[in-house]
Write a structure and sequence with these properties.
Bound molecules: 6-O-phosphono-beta-D-glucopyranose
Domain Glucose-6-phosphate dehydrogenase C-terminal: 191-488
Active site: 241 (proton acceptor)
Number of strands: 18
Oligomer: single chain
Domain Glucose-6-phosphate dehydrogenase NAD-binding: 9-188
Strand content: 15-25%
Number of helices: 14
Binding site for substrate: 179, 183, 217, 236, 342, 347
Catalytic activity: D-glucose 6-phosphate + NADP(+) = 6-phospho-D-glucono-1,5-lactone + NADPH + H(+)
């Protein structure tokens, strides 16, 4: 078969819940769905002195609820091996290399090695350097690196991090994960836009009045207070996931569907983002932090009362922004409104494209209910597309009323659509980097975000300023009202 063969080495296999919640289940699903041959092994690497048995038990626990009788969990888990490891100790690299070779022979993985860095980024430099100096990156097959966010915390640190890993891996070998790019409906943006004669001709400043991208969450920061308090919504969501969706929505059609062409079009969008001066930031950006609130009869604490959070924290848990893209397609004033926040009313990610009104519409007036045309891309939890148009009301008059045309991606036999991590892991093993972020994308997005971070760091915010269970601070609504728009509540 053409299914990928590889030894996957996961650094940080015991820590964090990413591995348990996402990685092992994804590998399992690939295996179950026949997307992975039997020619694979996973090596869990971390400090703790675990044994293969302990590791395999964890892996089996993480896939427990699949309950698939066709797959023997022990058989699956037998592909997993554990290797206790000290990043500083060069001898450990030698042992790891031996184990990789051994498993490579056993599973006939053709010398392909996938290194997965799932640990604190301050170790990435040392780890990458040692992997190279000890010869682990020289093999007869391919070598690739998958790297988790956060990729730096500003442009400078991202550049430094990039420099360190580039000492060992070429850009082609680096797969920077942004799990939003593995979401089915995010990948669908390009198809909807470029496979339909209906949208692309209208997709510009002449026919679109504004675009809204919202990703709201119900959960607070939960157990991640320590990480989150040093990051905030701007760095945690906006710099990566939100700007990635923006790039896909705003980009020009690529010449071909190759990773190079697609990513270079996305880079052009990020390059065209209007960079603001620090003193303009308040006009374009709103920050928020959640206060306590009652949800389903349960009183939930404010952000500042959370675990690992500074009681006077100035960290934002909500951002709303108005972005302008200064290129031929969007110049002249098509605002892109973006918002994301924790502890909001619902868990939902949605993109709303609002079209301009007709220059002359006969169906205006008090007997008509004509509304703007909207194209809504529902990313999650519901996956689908809705087109809002106007049609005749079913009565004696020729008056108009809004109707919707909907497509539900999960309808029919599609219940089993793959998960983001599963798709991305599969892509990486096939050598397709389309849905991973190129260094240039990371660089331009940080440069844009840095201005906001700097402006905000100089002024203490008036936090908390929105209630748990709400849609964020009222300033976020004002941001649109100032332009004569409103956030569309389309769910
Ligand atoms: C992660 C952020 O990248 O994305 C989290 O670090 C956030 O804070 C998560 O909760 C949201 O992802 P999803 O797939 O649940 O929308």
């Amino acid at each position: 078969t053409n299914n990928p063969k590889a030894v996957i080495v996961i650094f940080g296999a015991t820590g964090g819940d990413l591995a348990n919640r996402k990685l092992y289940p994804s590998i399992y699903r690939l295996y179950r769905n026949g997307k992975l041959s039997d020619n694979f092994a996973v090596i869990g690497v971390a400090r703790r002195p675990w044994t293969n048995e302990v590791f395999r038990d964890k892996v089996k626990e993480s896939i427990e609820n699949f309950n698939d009788t066709n797959i023997d969990p022990d058989e699956f888990a037998s592909h997993f091996h554990y290797n206790p490891f000290d990043i500083q100790d060069l001898e450990h690299y030698e042992d790891l290399d031996k184990l990789i070779n051994e498993l490579d022979d056993k599973y006939e993985a053709e010398g392909n090695r996938l290194f997965y860095f799932s640990m604190a980024p301050n170790f990435f430099g040392t780890l990458a350097a040692n992997l190279k100096s000890e010869g682990l990156t020289t093999t007869k097959g391919w070598t690739r690196l998958v790297i988790e966010k956060p990729f730096g915390h500003d442009f400078k640190s991202a550049k430094e991090l990039n420099k360190q890993i580039r000492e060992t891996f070429t850009e082609d070998q680096i797969y920077r994960i942004d799990h939003y790019l593995g979401k089915e409906m995010v990948q669908n943006i390009e198809v909807i836009r470029f496979a339909n004669a209906l949208f692309e001709p209208l997709w510009n400043n002449q026919y679109i009045s504004n675009i809204q991208i919202t990703s709201s969450e119900v959960l607070g920061v939960e157990e991640r207070g320590r990480y989150y308090d040093g990051a905030g919504a701007l760095k945690d969501m906006m710099q990566n996931h939100m700007l990635q969706m923006l790039a896909l929505i705003a980009m020009d059609p690529p010449i071909k569907l190759t990773p190079e062409e697609i990513r270079s079009e996305k880079v052009k969008v990020l390059r065209a983002l209007r960079v603001m001066n620090e003193d303009e930031v308040d006009k374009y950006f709103v920050r928020g932090q959640y206060d306590k609130g009652i949800v389903n009869g349960e009183e939930l604490p404010s952000y500042r009362e959370g675990n690992g959070v500074d009681p006077e924290s100035n960290t934002e848990t909500f951002v709303a922004a108005k972005l302008m893209i200064d290129n031929f397609r969007w110049a002249g004033g098509v605002p892109f409104y973006i918002r994301t926040g924790k502890r909001m009313k619902e868990k939902s990610t949605e993109i709303v494209v609002e079209f301009k009104d007709l220059p002359m519409n006969l169906y205006y007036g008090k007997e008509h209910e004509t509304k703007s045309n909207l194209l809504v891309i529902h990313v999650q939890p519901h996956e689908g597309i809705t087109l809002h148009v106007n049609a005749k009301k079913g009565d004696y008059n020729a008056s108009s009323t809004p109707i919707t045309l909907s497509y539900d991606n999960k309808a029919g036999d599609k219940m089993n659509t793959p998960e983001a991590y599963e798709i991305l892991l599969h892509d990486c093993m096939r050598g397709d980097s389309t849905n991973f972020t190129h260094w240039d994308e990371v660089a331009f997005s940080w440069k844009f975000i840095d201005v906001i971070t700097n402006a905000w760091s100089k002024k203490k915010a008036d936090f908390p300023n929105y209630n748990t269970g709400s849609n964020g601070p009222k300033e976020a609504d004002q941001l649109l009202l100032n332009d004569g728009f409103e956030w569309w509540d389309v769910t």
